[in-house]
Design goal:
The termini are close together. Helix content is 32%, strand content 29%.
């Protein structure tokens, strides 16, 4: 087994009077796809938020090697039509960690964007407004944005939500490819196909880690 890219130790998150996560301990290795499963409200999205560093735990900790890079694709249900972003702009945002916001992309950046668009079948849509594409196409664009970052850890909330079976297969193949590249891929899912394709499965029930398939 690959060494852990991330690990959580006795992780607890309190949201008001609700315990979203309680004493969760788990290792999330590089070169693996880990699926987070459990019913709505089990704490999957909360765990992704903590791993991404956008939410501080109430107690416990996240262990990560120095210099580890993380790309996070939270779940999005809608995009404002007033947001002037094309699909290409959305993917290009994945290079901001390397280039900084709104800076001109280098040739290498453009090649990465083009390759990731091709992997997810987005090339014909690059010039279209993100708000004008279908929900499934938008989801593919957001997953592609995470790929474009070329991070050590890729976190994705419901990557196959709202897509057809063919697109689901493409997205899952792409996530497996990121693990083959050496990344630790962690995604929350309700889809049985996504669970079956994962290398490891971490089940959350009422905020606690219930089981792990390794």
């Amino acid at each position: 087994m690959a060494p852990p890219a991330l690990a959580v130790r006795d992780l607890t998150v309190q949201r008001g009077s609700t315990t979203a996560l309680e004493a969760v301990t788990a290792e999330l290795p590089a070169c693996c796809v880990t699926a987070l499963v459990g019913p709505n409200g089990a704490g999957k999205s909360t765990l992704l938020d903590v791993l991404a560093g956008v939410l501080a735990p109430t107690s416990g900790c996240v262990e990560r090697p120095r210099g580890l890079t993380v790309a996070y694709v939270p779940q999005h249900s809608a995009v404002s039509p007033d947001l002037p972003l094309t699909v290409a702009d959305t993917l290009a945002m994945g290079r901001w960690r390397e280039r900084g916001p709104w800076r001109r992309l280098r040739r290498e950046d453009r090649e990465i964007v083009a390759a990731c668009a091709d992997r997810l079948g987005l090339t014909p849509l690059l010039d279209r407004p993100l708000s004008a594409v279908s929900g499934g196409q938008r989801q593919r664009a957001l997953v592609a944005q995470g790929l474009v970052a070329r991070a050590d850890v890729l976190l994705v909330d419901e990557p196959t939500a709202g897509v057809d079976a063919a697109t689901q297969a493409v997205v899952l193949e792409v996530l497996a490819g990121e693990a083959d590249r050496g990344a630790a891929v962690v995604h929350a899912t309700h889809e049985s196909a996504a669970v079956d394709c994962a290398d490891r499965v971490l089940a959350l029930v009422s905020g606690r880690a219930d089981a792990l398939r390794a």
